[in-house]
Amino acid sequence: MTAKKLPDSLIRRQFSPEFKAKLVSASKRPGASLAAIALANGINSNQLRRWCKEHVSGYAWSNPAEGHSNRHYSDEYKRMIVAQCQQPGATATSVARSNALHPNLVGTWVKKLHPAHRPCATAQELEGQAVALLPIMVSEEVQLPARPAAGLGHIDIELGAAHIRLHGTPDPKTLRVVLEVLR
Questions:
Q1: Residues 49, 83 within the same domain
Q2: Which of 31, 99, 119, 151 is the most buried (most CB within 10 A)?
């Protein structure tokens, strides 16, 4: 079985940073037409327009000759990038562009590594640590409507991984027992 060659229309073309810079520079000349420059160089005018926007924003183009590989970044490098994002006025997009990274990748690192975005601690992380619970006051004087209406409301209680949801008007005795257990 022989491998079939893809048609040229389906092969993604790659352009060097020098080529992109040359066309962007040509598009800045007085009276230059983006469409004419793109047509003369065999690219779509929208592609050239995008390169012009990237150039203005300071985006660093990578060289296709270096190849695209799945890069693996060290944790130290990721922490350095996240620290740059925490500087006043910095955004994940601006930091990504200044470091030739994709903004979504930097955003993912911020979510995973920044303490404010850290998910709740696991049971293993809490093992051996003191856990403080907030006190709950249960009043003996519960005033309920004479006739509970269906679907009067709901109560949501979240404690760590536990989630308790009560719909309608709960029985006061049952609710008191649940709250006592949670103390």
A1: no
A2: 99
Whether residue 91 sits in one domain with residue 55:
no
Q: Is residue 136 part of a domain?
A: no
Residue found by looking up tokens 């009043």 in the block: 139
Structure tokens at 83: 């620290």
Overall number of domains in the chain? 3
Task: Say if residues 23 and 37 touch (Cβ distance below 8 Å).
Answer: yes
pLDDT in tens, 13-59: 888 888 998 999 999 899 999 899 999 999 999 989 888 887 776 66
Q: Confirm whether 141 is domain-assigned.
A: no
The radius of gyration of the chain's CA atoms, rounded to the nearest angstrom, is: 30
Dmax (CA) for the chain in angstroms is 84
How far is residue 6 CA from its own chain's centroid? 35
Is residue 154 domain-shared with residue 179, that is, in the same domain?
yes
Note the pLDDT of residue 1: 55
Q: Which two tokens stand for residue 46?
A: 């929208």
Tokens of 115: 């303490």
For residue 68, how many other CB atoms are within 10 A of its CB?
8
CA 80, 83, 87, 92 torsion-angle sign: positive
Spans of the chain below 50 pLDDT: 68-69
Contact 53, 47 (CB under 8 A): no
Contact 117, 111 (CB under 8 A): yes
